[in-house]
Design goal:
The protein contains 18 helices and 21 strands. The protein is an alpha+beta fold. Strands 10, 12, 13, 14, 15, 16, 17 and 18 form an 8-stranded mixed β-sheet that branches. Strands 5-2-1-9-21-20 form a 6-stranded mixed β-sheet. The relative contact order is 0.19.
């Protein structure tokens, strides 16, 4: 490592890499510290699906989507629900990010070699009216190569800077304190952890073998959020979402522990919106786990029927893919920690995808042949079929009575009544015979199929679930899985950390999830999806460029 650097970046995830490469490009020396081993370079982004939010992109226009920055900002503000005094900077970050997403973001990434799958996804569809939550149009652009494809340009740039002597890595260096002198952050101190050859994402040793102290003109905190620390998640859980679950799964590795938020706060930075968080309700236990309580999220199309633990069908617009946090709030008030999808083979084949780079080998491996097979194959994608066969949360039966019996057996209770579920599903099936219906979910399915992308690869043709020709029947037990922190260190548009008086804390910057993806909470209460990686890119770039410019 360099004996003397201008900037220290805490965290070797996407935001940290973006910040560090921008600093190196400016000719400044930068040191990246991370408590994990080098094999975990890239952090959570490595495991991601690689979704990015663009506005009025060529991909959208080719799919017949009419988008604009004005529409996107209206959707963002309606979704975020900014209503606090501390939302001043988050809202300014939101405005700046939408401009970025509709402006230079795509060209900047494209110039580094990044490409995107041509069919744009439609996430978080809302359903509460024009001024409410949700994307009015599809904006979820899957990066060709998934999370690996997002990371690759920045890893390549970092390694090139390392070769030039401008960038150094300090893996297994856990920052325990920020050094503060005369009111300014001047460096970091912490513990050197024992080398560990554990696989990427698996829990690593916390054995301490030494200490360190490094000084610099600026420190950027890019250490992520709290999703791997269930104690902190429960501590910050907001009452508006009901009580915290007794049982949760983890959508992120254990090292996503939130330590640096408290460390930044002790140094004088203000942490805001800690009660805003983004957790999913479509989690399933990974039959081949990498980290403790490892969950995979189902990315569902709109056709599965959704029931709570007692068999009550969820009301509109709480259908698959429409409102993540609205569904979480509703289910937390049900008194149970799980819910159910009921579907059939035609729906799982057409509509089920799994979040994560490792669950999408066709997109991650950039194989058009496998992608085409996904679209026209008779079975579901191989990772989905593997979960259907091996996952403990999947029940497959030839008739509804046996399916319900299996569901009750899995949970060890008799909460579900066969006759009630049959009435619900039969009534729904009667709505299929016409191109119009009174069932709002069926209306939403018809609307989805008006979009060419959904009709081609994402939404099953409307059909009767109880028709044996579409079977077998499938039930999936769904868990809550932790994922993102929507609050964090408050920052201005340069990524400078702000103190309690609202002024910048000299020498300290923050980026990525540690900064609430910008400003201490750019998403407000809810996200439009495809905006987490993009928030890391934008906030990392801003903080890196500002820190480099401030160095003498």
């Amino acid at each position: 490592m360099q004996d003397s650097v201008e900037v220290i970046v805490v965290g070797a995830g996407l935001a940290g890499l973006v910040a560090a490469t921008e600093i190196a490009d400016a000719g400044k020396r930068v040191l990246i510290l991370d408590q994990e081993p080098g094999q975990s370079l890239g952090g959570q982004a490595f495991w991601s699906f690689g979704g990015l939010f663009f506005v009025d992109s060529p991909e959208q226009r080719r799919m017949g989507i009419r988008d604009s920055p004005a529409l996107a900002l209206s959707d963002w503000v309606g979704t975020a629900g900014f209503d606090r005094d501390v939302d001043r900077w988050p809202r300014r970050w939101a405005e700046a990010y939408v401009d970025f997403a509709g402006g230079e973001k795509r060209a900047w990434l494209h110039a580094m070699g990044m490409r995107w799958f041509p069919v744009v996804g439609w996430a978080e569809r809302g359903g509460y009216g024009s001024v409410g939550h949700g994307n009015s149009v599809p904006r979820f652009h899957v990066t060709w190569g998934t999370g690996h494809g997002v990371l690759e340009p920045f890893v390549r740039r970092a390694r090139a800077a390392e070769g030039c002597g401008l960038l150094s890595f300090g893996f297994r260096h856990r920052v325990d304190d920020l050094l503060v002198e005369n009111g300014a952050v001047t460096g970091v101190r912490g513990a050197v952890l024992a080398n560990d050859a554990i696989g990427r994402g698996s829990p690593s040793s916390r054995e301490v073998t030494g200490e360190f102290e490094f000084r610099a003109q600026a420190v950027i905190v890019a250490s992520g959020g709290i999703g791997g620390n269930h104690e902190l998640v429960r501590k910050n859980w907001p009452a508006r979402l009901g009580g915290p679950p007794r049982h949760m799964l983890s959508g992120v590795p254990a090292h996503v522990d939130g330590r640096m938020l408290g460390i930044g706060e002790r140094a004088g930075a203000r942490v805001i919106n800690g009660d805003r968080m983004w957790h999913y309700v479509e989690g399933i236990e990974n039959w081949n786990p990498i980290w403790p309580m490892h969950a995979i999220r189902i990315l569902p199309g709109p056709s599965s029927m959704w029931f709570d633990a007692c068999g009550k069908r969820l009301p509109g617009p709480l259908w698959p893919g429409f409102d993540t946090l609205g569904t979480l709030e509703y289910l937390r008030r049900s008194g149970h920690d799980h819910s159910w999808f009921i579907l059939d083979q035609q729906i799982i084949r057409r509509e089920f995808a799994l979040s994560g780079s490792e669950q999408n080998p066709d997109l991650t491996g950039k194989s058009w042949r496998q992608v085409i097979k996904r679209a026209i194959g008779k079975g579901a994608p191989a990772p989905v079929e593997a979960f259907k066969q091996r996952g403990k949360d999947f029940i497959v039966r030839d008739n509804l009575r046996e399916l319900v019996a299996g569901m009750n057996e899995l949970t060890g209770n008799q909460l579900l009544d066969h006759d009630h579920l049959r009435r619900e599903i039969e009534a729904r099936d009667l709505q299929i015979d016409n191109p119009f219906a009174k069932d709002a979910q069926i209306m939403a399915i018809h609307n989805a199929r008006r979009y060419r992308g959904d009709r081609l690869v994402r939404t099953a043709k409307p059909h009767r679930i109880l028709d044996p020709a579409n079977g077998p029947l499938i039930a999936v037990r769904l868990h809550i899985l932790t994922r993102k922190s929507l609050g964090g260190i408050e920052t201005d548009l340069q990524g400078r950390a702000l103190a309690g008086d609202g002024n910048p804390l000299p020498g300290l910057y923050a980026a990525g999830e540690a900064a609430g993806f910008g400003g201490g909470g750019v998403h407000g209460y809810r996200a439009l999806e495809g905006t987490f990686l993009g928030g890391c890119l934008f906030s990392g770039r801003n903080a890196g460029r500002a820190a480099a410019a401030a160095c003498v």
